[in-house]
């Protein structure tokens, strides 16, 4: 199915990440070598080959996409506590990819797949309505005004993500940057296909960047919307 959204009109999409160098430790490299063939996925920019999630996970179960999982501790913890759902994490930072593979191996998780590449390319490979939830926890804040166009949570991308959710599926964003929280709230509330999920306290382990934000005295904002 092809659907046109403002974000899809941007080819290639604006990069939402800092190019960062990072070396993999032996633990990470070993884990990636061992688990990559069965649990890994490389995302190539511009590749639009449809991704069959049931084939990827080897079963039919609700799928959660986590964008920018960092070192993957939160992804691994959530997947371990939620064996009935499958977790597809996508990240560009190589040490984080290696660390999530290591955690998957150490915890014996079978419901995690690790995608290496740009999430804004990966989502085009996911069928509309295919996801149970999307998590965007503490995306890069891009604090300078001239960089705001690089922020992941903005209207065109929100529309792109919302289309991948099933009706009733959850888009859960969190940030420790107040002006980004305000911009996120505006983008989410302004999307005609989303409605607030209610303000019950979200079940979410603390992430590494959340900890940094809290230590620096920044407030944490969680925004949860469901697809209508
Ligand atoms: C500030 S860190 C937060 C990491 C983690 N979620 C946490 O809370 O600790 C944001 C992460 O998003 C990743 N990222 C940003 N844009 C991305 C994209 N388009 N696709 C995949 N990963 C992305 C970055 O590499 C970075 O690791």
Brief write-up:
It is built from 9 helices and 8 strands.
Describe the protein's architecture and organization.
With 228 residues, the protein is an alpha/beta fold. Helix content is 35%, strand content 21%. The chain has helices at residues 6-9, 26-39, 53-57, 73-80, 94-107, 119-122, 155-164, 178-189, 208-215, and strands at 40-42, 63-67, 86-91, 112-116, 131-137, 165-175, 194-196, 221-227. It has an eight-stranded mixed β-sheet with strand order 1-4-3-2-5-6-8-7, with helices on both faces. Helix 2 (26-39) crosses helix 5 (94-107) and helix 4 runs parallel beside helix 5 (94-107). It is globular, with a radius of gyration of 17 Å. The structure holds S-adenosylmethionine.
SSE diagram, text form:
Elements: H1 6-9, H2 26-39, E1 40-42, H3 53-57, E2 63-67, H4 73-80, E3 86-91, H5 94-107, E4 112-116, H6 119-122, E5 131-137, H7 155-164, E6 165-175, H8 178-189, E7 194-196, H9 208-215, E8 221-227
This protein binds S-adenosylmethionine.
S-adenosylmethionine binds at residues 16-17, 67-70, 90-93, 96, 118-120, 137-140, 152, 207-210.
